[in-house]
Amino acid sequence: MITKKDLENLAELARIELKKNEEEKLLADLEKILKHFEELKEVNTSSVKPMTGGTFLSNVLRDDASDNRVSNEKAIESFPNKEKGLLRVPPVFE
Amino acid sequence: MKNLADFTIKSFHDGLLNREFSALEITQEFFKHISVRDKEVGAYLTLLERDATIQAERVDIMVARDEAVPPLAGVPFAIKDNMLIEGVRTTAASKMLESYIASYDATVVKKLKKEGVVILGKTNLDEFAMGSSTENSAYQLTHNPHDLGRVPGGSSGGSVAAVASHMAVAALGSDTGGSIRQPASLCGVVGFKPTYGAVSRFGLIALASSLDQIGPITKTVEDAALVFKVIAGKDPYDSTSVDRPVGAFEMGLSKNNLEEVRKLTIGIPKEYFIAGLDNLVARGVEEAIKKLKNLKFEIKEVSLPHTKYALSCYYIILPAEVSTNLARFDGVRYASVAAAEGHIKNLRETYFKNRGLGFGVETRRRILLGTFVLSAGYYDAYYAKAQKVRRLIKNDFDEAFKEVDVILAPTSPTPAFKLGDKVLDPLSMYLSDILTIPVNLAGLPAISIPVKKYPLQDKELPIGFQLIGKHFHESDILNIGQLYEGLE
After folding, report:
1. Shortest CA distance from B345: residue in chain A
2. Are B43 and B167 in contact (CB under 8 A)?
3. Which pLDDT does position A62 carry in this prediction?
4. How many CB atoms lie within 10 A of CB B344?
5. 3-class state of residue B328 by DSSP
6. Does residue B397 belong to the interface with chain A, where contact is any CB pair within 8 Å?
7. Is the pLDDT of residue B251 over 80?
8. B368: nearest CB among A10, A57, A70
9. Which residues of B touch A57 (CB under 8 A)?
10. pLDDT tens digits, A5-57
């Protein structure tokens, strides 16, 4: 149902480098889990509306204004790579 | 001075006001006890002795000046390490966040600090709260204090083990599919998951946002109510949080209130007494039902027909949300993984190396599973289907709550299992959550209460049962729970 190629594609989409020796076990585990999910086919859901979240609230609005719950200094301080009060990130274009 | 094992929030508060001890003395006693006992239990990832000492001294000054002392002031607390404390390392038990220092307080932490709580430290968990045994922590194992060869449950295993081994009077945990209640049941303490939206999750490292809820882990139901009262309420930083009066349950039951509580009807869902239910659990829960019958509660059978599908439903919806929530851990923000450094040539490798080396086995498994169920061609068959089944599970509860006020069920299908027993077989581990998951899918409040109080007999393992209430009817389950614990 799920092939080695599928798994490699998923890892590509999820940006996770898999270790060579873990693929087999992962495939077997996923296979077993997906097989368990087959039971959902028994449930008739033809006229059921999906439940899309945990809350029954709608249109929760707030003022469109910034606040300083976390100061710039503290936010920068918690960033792994910084220089002179600026965030240092890897180059995006090569 | 009292034995540390005898402290509840209530008895600590009374003793403090009666000048039987100082907050500082007790804080120091706790750290002394932790320095010995935690070597074998492994509940704490980080200890905060300096901050705790300063806070305890502040409380002692309040007492000395006869200022109003809030009920939680000075109480030695533990916080699960997926909630942020400003200036303190917060790891979510992942290598991904090994060097991450939080830049603000989670709302729950802010509220506890305002009350004057003494935070002793941050506790172990399954990585990003994914697991049922705390064995998925990237740092250490936590052992069940009743039998060190067994798991404490999970994912809030550290918080629960800390309370159960008297290394904290109370703790906070988070419950996405049972992560407060299941370990509470396995370690013989009280674990309370409030209604979805009752407590702000701002500053909780998100696992599955449509399911996550923060709640207290305590020795008594009365203590759980005290903590809940402090942490509940609307927070502009969590748009799912709701302003609701928390109900009348605090400080024990008045006589009038008692008669009202006895009018509540309790339902027993037949689908929860499944084939795999351990004999000890079945007997324990029967014992609890018998005691409540003796209290003259009306008890009747109810049916929640879609219960058996909850596990599949949850393990589709949860990984889907995990795969999106954990996309933010890219090795650029928050922290980078030490082992990845020096191997990275470009941005693409930044992601692949950091995430490949930073996430543990279970985390990777769930991210991949979530990516699968959300991918084109599989979305309808898995994710959309699970969302519909989730509606049916919630409808089941709505129907049952037309007949009864509260539902009583076992919390975990088994007592604490042995370390290593299930960690290699994810599906068997997932089955440990089978009785707690439906509550999260429906967003209901539920509390796990030990069938029996301490001390248990030698080698006897704790058993818990859960009371499930209607949305925002925390008071019903807290009141029945307090009546139950008053029996002994």
Report:
1. A90
2. yes
3. 86
4. 17
5. helix
6. no
7. no
8. A10
9. 197, 239-240, 242
10. 999 999 999 999 998 889 999 999 999 999 999 999 999 999 999 999 988 88
Q: What is the mean pLDDT of chain B?
A: 94
Residue of A nearest to B443 (CA): A54
The yes-or-no answer on residue B179 being catalytic is yes
Contact call for B332 and A90, based on CB within 8 A: yes
Contact criterion met (CB < 8 Å) for A54 and B196:
yes
Residue of B nearest to A73 (CA): B103
Enumerate domains of chain B plus CATH numbers. Answer: 4-260+444-483 (3.90.1300.10)
* DSSP one-letter string for B6-60: G--HHHHHHHHHTTSS-HHHHHHHHHHHHHHHHHHH--EEEE-HHHHHHHHHHHH
Is B80 part of the annotated catalytic residue set?
Answer: yes
Nearest to A40 among B242, B309, B375 (CB): B309
How far is residue B101's CA from residue B117's CA, in Å, rounded to a whole number?
21
Say how far apart CA B111 and CA B210 lie, in whole Å: 23
What is d(CA B65, CA B138) in angstroms, rounded to the nearest whole number? Answer: 45
What the block records as the tokens of B192 is: 């309370």
B179 close to B17: Cβ distance less than 8 angstroms: no
| Residues in chain A closer than 8 A to B386 (CB atoms) | 40
Verify whether residue B452 is a known catalytic residue: no
In which band, very low, low, confident or very high, does the pLDDT at B455 lie, cut at 50, 70 and 90?
low
How do residues B427-439 score in pLDDT, each as one tens digit?
A: 889 989 999 999 9
By the CB < 8 Å criterion, does B316 face chain A?
yes
DSSP H stretches of helix in B91-198? 107-115, 157-164, 181-187
* pTM metric for this prediction: 0.96
Report which residue type is found at B315.
Y
Q: What is the average per-residue pLDDT within B173-202?
A: 97
Band of residue B246 on the pLDDT scale cut at 50, 70, 90: low
Sort out which chain A residues have CB atoms less than 8 A from B237's CB and list them.
69
Kindly state the average pLDDT of the residues B205-234: 96
- Give me the pLDDT at residue B260, please: 81
